[in-house]
Amino acid sequence: RPGEEAAPAVPRLSRQVRCFSTSVLRPFIKPVRPPVQIYGLKGRYATALYSAASKQNKLEQVAEEPLRVGQILKEPEMAASIMNPYVKCHIEVKSLNDMTAKERLEKYLAVTTVPPLDEATLAELKTVLKSFLSKGQVLKLEVKIEPSIMCGMIVRTGEKYVFKNRDSEAEQSNADF
């Protein structure tokens, strides 16, 4: 019967293909051995990281990353938020972005309005907000549209915010007199 004879040939063919494919790749794949053998689960991860980094010629960059993380964890607030299992991931990422932005002298501001801002108003707003920045700081502006606020504008930086609308401006100008 033809079906019975083909059954043993299929595994033999797959073994030959597998042997051929690995024998073709073997001369091109050079195993990378780390200079120090580390055992256990930590060793497996360290060896895999070392192997991948050395194959891509990025050993220095990979070696610097844990040092950067160590620097970040030296700040008590950051260490507490990262090590706390109850803090959500997006909060940790935001905190990390805030820290790196501070290092790069970037100031993130979120502006929330009801109608979308036209280009002229946005340019004027950027000019006004840049006047509040320290020397060397760079403004990073995020504009949001929120229909739930009736009118006006909310400018938020971190936990601080300012709400302005026509009524509050009128009240403020009356209070000045």
From TrEMBL:
Keyword line: ATP synthesis, Hydrogen ion transport, Ion transport, Membrane, Transport
Matches recorded under SUPFAM superfamilies: N-terminal domain of the delta subunit of the F1F0-ATP synthase
Compartments (UniProt record): Membrane
Any GO molecular function: proton-transporting ATP synthase activity, rotational mechanism
Keyword Membrane: yes
GO cellular component: membrane
Superkingdom of origin: Eukaryota
Similarity annotation: Belongs to the ATPase delta chain family.
Protein name as annotated: Oligomycin sensitivity conferral protein
Source organism of this protein record: Balaenoptera physalus (Fin whale)
